[in-house]
Write a structure and sequence with these properties.
heterodimer; A: mainly alpha; B: mainly alpha; MetI-like fold; globular
Chain lengths: 278, 296
């Protein structure tokens, strides 16, 4: 056994060093927050100091200009529905592929996994054509369907790896009790997948909520914009008006930071689990 | 017993219900467009007209022989990837070493280091463009330190390092989490044995810790390689590829070729070259570091 480590001088020094590095990591947040409540003149005179006066009307203005509630709801719907669909289709496919490993399913599995090395940029140009031909352009549902396609490989891979640890005996006894194959999956297997479902949901949420390129190709109508799209167009119009721009950035960043602080235990656990398995 | 025919029928239906939706969306969104890009890369398609003229290998010839901007973007992406991969892994690994010590504030510190990761790359680029231009200037005036008084983002080299700094700041926390998980899984007895044998800290690191967390290196190198090779959002919002195209990533170059110059055929040809390189580099890296992993 390791002897109970005393809180030595060396540890204290390390602790102080670590806190200093952490403060350095936080400095950008300080700059953005502090300057988002300054008047334009104050910001230009002194970007490093404390505000002369706190001006929260920057936020009120940007809230209106960015139509923030609308962008927030667009992001929310797109993230939630993409997640729901992805979990259902990838868990089901992974289950079938694992439990019936005939030639077709083995080929399909390799296909899903191999596609993960294709960079998005090598798909996006013809995708725009395909999407407009099947009517996915300029529609939130269309974007959600795109996320189904792009997310399914990784999600299927993660579920497939996790399911290997679920014993078949439980399922077999359910079949003996007269459960249909669909019942076995939804009532028995799916609840057992819960830890992986949480990981998948969190990884997908971070990706979809923050994504810019795909939504910028699919959604052109101003009313459909997600938060990153809206921030981008807002920045284009208010390039040098940093007082407003920074307030907009703080608003854009806040939902995800709050989400992370609430869910951080699961997010960090999910990343470790996903990486060690991968 | 269920008759054999009915059983087969039910199996086929199950296959369709369970795998069908995933396969349908995957084919529609990923596979079909990807296969189409092989065809379009050989045409002069402009994305608007329905008339698509066969161009043979002209696009590829043009890219390899004449396209200086593409070559510059490749050179930039390669240098950026190298710097970003090395530095994020070093910082992430160092943070993990630090935060596996029994520090009182370590849970809080982990949260802080991970935090930049949850912010969209696009927003991060905007945030940092303010910090480089306004914030660094203010700090420079105040302290007189030369580093802060450089024309940040205004020259090719400050823009390059600007990209690298933001990347390290954003991603090292993610790698830290993976390295910490690997370090927590190291067998205690090996560490104890090395201590009893009188290994010093450096020997411990080199001969025990690094070989044991090799699987985490494989994962982290893979992640950072593919992230930085494909960098787009951060590039677009931080430097827009400037000044004078010196920091334009390949992803941004492809995007501009297709959607701003409306040369979809040429853009797809570039994207295929990009695919071949990304796939080759990441596969080679995984094969190489996998070989270095040790069995415990």
């Amino acid at each position: 056994m390791e002897q109970a480590q005393r809180y030595s001088a060396r540890l204290l020094a390390l602790e102080i060093a670590a806190i200093l590095v952490a403060l350095l990591f936080l400095v950008p947040f300080y700059f953005v927050l502090v300057n988002s409540v300054k008047s334009f003149g104050d910001l230009m005179r002194n970007a490093a100091g404390w505000p002369e006066a706190f001006r929260f009307d920057n936020y009120a203005k940007v809230w209106e200009i960015m139509r923030f509630p609308r962008a927030f709801m667009n992001s929310l719907w797109i993230t939630v529905l993409s997640n729901a669909g992805l979990v259902v289709i990838s868990a089901m496919a992974a289950y079938r592929i694992l439990r019936r490993p005939h030639l077709l399913n083995r080929v399909l599995f390799v296909l899903f996994i191999a596609a993960m090395v294709i960079p998005f940029q090598s798909i996006m140009i013809p995708l725009v054509k395909v999407a407009s031909e099947v009517g996915l352009m300029d529609s939130r549902l269309g974007l959600i369907i795109c996320y189904f396609g792009f997310g399914v490989s990784l999600n299927l891979f993660l579920y497939h790896g996790f399911m290997k640890s679920i014993p078949r005996e439980i399922e077999e006894s359910a079949v003996v009790d007269g459960c249909t194959p669909y019942g076995v999956f939804w009532r028995i297997v799916f609840p057992l997948l819960k830890p992986m479902t949480i990981t998948v949901l969190l990884l997908n949420s971070l990706w979809i909520w923050n994504d810019f390129l795909l939504p910028s190709l699919v959604l052109h109508d101003a009313g459909l914009r997600t938060i990153p799209l809206q921030t981008y167009s807002f920045f284009g119009q208010y390039t040098k008006q940093w007082d407003l721009a920074l307030a907009g950035l703080v608003m854009g960043v806040t939902p995800m930071v709050v989400f992370f602080l609430m869910m951080q235990k699961y997010i960090i656990a999910g990343i470790s689990a996903g990486a060690v398995k991968g | 017993m269920v008759p054999l025919k009915r059983k087969r029928w039910s199996e086929a239906v199950q296959q369709l219900v369970f795998v069908g939706p995933a396969l349908l969306f995957f084919c529609l969104i990923v596979l079909v467009p990807f296969l189409m890009s092989f065809y379009y890369s050989l045409t002069d398609w402009n994305g608007v007209t329905t008339r698509v003229v066969w161009a043979g290998l002209n696009n590829f010839k043009r890219i390899l022989m004449e396209d200086d901007a593409f070559r510059t973007s490749f050179w930039f992406t390669a240098r950026y990837t190298l710097a970003a991969v090395v530095l994020t892994n070093l910082v992430g690994f160092a943070l993990a070493l630090l935060l596996t010590q029994p520090l009182k504030t370590r849970n809080l510190l982990r949260t802080v280091f991970f935090l930049p990761n949850v912010i969209a790359g696009l927003l991060l680029g905007f945030i940092w463009s303010f910090i480089f231009v306004r914030g660094f200037a203010a700090v420079g005036n105040w302290t007189g330190i030369g580093f802060f008084q450089l024309p940040w983002l205004g020259t090719a080299s400050t823009a390059f390092w600007g990209m690298v700094i933001v990347t390290v700041w954003q991603l090292s926390g993610y790698l830290m989490v993976i390295y910490i998980a690997a370090m927590m899984n190291m067998p205690r007895d090996l560490i104890e044995a090395a201590k009893i044998d009188g290994a010093n800290r450096f020997q411990m690191l080199k001969n025990i810790i690094v070989p044991l967390v090799m699987p985490a290196f494989t994962v982290c190198l893979f992640l950072t390689l593919s992230w930085s090779f494909k960098v787009f959002d951060l590039n677009l919002s931080l430097t827009k590829g400037g000044p004078f195209g010196s920091t334009e990533s390949v992803a941004l170059n492809i995007y501009k070729e297709a959607f701003q110059n409306n040369r979809y055929g040429l853009g797809t040809a570039k994207s295929l070259i990009f695919f071949v390189i990304v796939a080759t580099v990441t596969t080679l890296q995984v094969l190489y570091t996998k070989r270095k992993e040790v069995e415990v």
